[in-house]
Batch of 2 targets.
Target 1
Amino acid sequence: MWRRVASLSPLVSSSKSRLLNQVQVAYGFNAWQMFSTQVLNPVEGGVSDSRRTPFVTFVLGGPGSGKGTQCTRIVETFGFTHLSAGDLLRREISSNSENGSMILSTIKEGKIVPSVVTVQLIQKAIETSDSDKFLIDGFPRTEENRIAYERVIGAEPDIVLFFDCPEEEMVKRVLNRNQGRIDDNIDTVKERLKVFAELNLPVIKHYSKKGKLYKIDGTGSEDEIFERVRPVFAALRYPVLF
Ligand SMILES: Nc1ncnc2c1ncn2[C@@H]1O[C@H](COP(=O)(O)OP(=O)(O)OP(=O)(O)O)[C@@H](O)[C@H]1O
Ligand SMILES: Nc1ccn([C@H]2C[C@H](O)[C@@H](COP(=O)(O)O)O2)c(=O)n1
Ligand SMILES: [Mg+2]
């Protein structure tokens, strides 16, 4: 079980703090992102490998914006573990869990499942994985999702990707998806677009204000989009040791 040291900053000496600022300027990351896979040991004030915390990327965008497609590419190239909130919920439906019928009707209507259910599924998936870097796809969809995650997991994401795509393109992609999803029909898509604009955009704005957002142009071919995503993760492969 991993956990993040909540009050890291007071433990960082002023010289380290200056160094972190220089690194942030040079690499475009903040101090928290740099410490995302190693946390300070509060007793010794040093870096402890025994209490690693995972690097978490939230992957956001409207329905059909290409989140799942690009996550597959990121997994192939950078070895992340992909957790799709939608897939976790659909698995609950197919396993006939106690929440299955509620989840099914919520997804059919294009609405959002209560955060307590989704956050629990994500928490379990993280805790039962050996991975130290996750893509959490399609989550948080609402401010309520975001706050519930931060409360339960005790951490914010390290970075957030947002695939920005015009509505007409998203609708076209969803209606051509042909994977048998119950929400891939014009009525549900219209509702999902409404929910995205009303409830998800505020989350995206929140992370933008925090300097964690990477807005990616979600138009063009899958390859073209991945070439916009690649530099974000390529930069993460240069660890800075303190
Ligand atoms: N750049 C692209 N150009 C054309 N089609 C694409 C592109 N990227 C993905 N697609 C296709 O569009 C459909 C939707 O993509 P994807 O499932 O990745 O979107 P998503 O953001 O995960 O959607 P949802 O939120 O509904 O799960 C899929 O059929 C996918 O193959
Ligand atoms: N945080 C989430 C994620 C997904 N859902 C529900 C509602 C979505 O329309 C549906 C499909 O998700 P997708 O595969 O498109 O990411 O699942 C939710 O309620 N809360
Ligand atoms: Mg998807």
Target 2
Amino acid sequence: MAEEKGKPAFDKPKIELHVHLDGAIQIKTIVDVAKRRGITLPVISEDEMRDLVIMHEPATLTEFLGKFDHYMHVIAGDREAIKRIAYEFVETKAKEGVIYAEARYSPHLLANKGVDPLPWDQKPGDITPDDVVDLVNQGFKEGEKAFKTKVRSILCCMRHMPNWSMDVVELCKKYRKDGVVAIDLAGDESLNCESYPGHKRAFEEAVRSEVHRTVHAGEVGPASVVKEAVEVLKAERIGHGYHTLEDQTLYKRLLQQNMHFEMCPVSSILTGGCDPDFTKHPLITFKKDKANYSLNTDDPTIFNSTLNSDYQVVQKYMDFTEEEFKRLNINAAKSCFLPEKEKDQLLEQLYESYGMVNRTGF
Ligand SMILES: O=c1[nH]cnc2c1ncn2[C@H]1C[C@H](O)[C@@H](CO)O1
């Protein structure tokens, strides 16, 4: 995918709200850690590993989710590796011109203790989901010091693991003043919440405890999943949401409510969420309607992309202008899950760098 080359599509400070930490690991890190831990990978070189992990053609969400099986066992259950991926994440985002990012991950998928079932066929160890959050926090904090980009975490519940979800909301509560800003629900959207009440209970607790909420919905699944996210799980933002357009009543209502949509253009094609012809992309409608949305990479390792490739795609195929890039980043800052004071500071930073003296215009 990665277009890159030449001048970035939007060479100004950016905000990214939808990116999976475990979908943004450098291939070199995977190969290095595997060597150090004596883990045999299915291939030997970095190039072969890249070829195995990257999605080259549009496929399905299930095929895409299968890509994590190739490397998660290398990072999970290793303190040094978990901290390292967090630190390197900040470095990458700083290079991309991101001044604030919300990175998401499932603490359970990186743990090797206190998680049932143990993921990735690991041997039991001593890293709990709570330890994972602490390690990621350490990596982000050290990264912020070194690279000046601020990163906060969103903790993911996984659709197929409803018995983990109460743990996830408790971790969000425990770390709310220390790096964690929200809860999410990720994974296979065909598993709805009626059949998996664990998620509903966790999101009810999130509402009760004022933990911010975003939900993957309408990425490959129908508008009804978006409706469930908003009405049952009380989502404040929607991850992807392309298929919301199939229910015009819902779409109009969400437009009116100024719902934020976390859009991931490159991802949307490769997961089979949207038609591969970018000129027919739902994002064009969201833009025309001046909706509240952000642009995001989602899983840059697997999509072989950078934030700039997402910006390039919308510039090339959807006529995005510098004005629209500014507008959507301001909307992203307004819709981020930081405490109000920090949000205001972030907005100030954007207004200043965008030369918006009177702070209005959109
Ligand atoms: O685009 C996505 N849709 C649904 N689930 C996803 C997507 N990207 C990553 N995930 C899953 C796989 C990861 O292991 C998990 C937590 O980041 O979230």
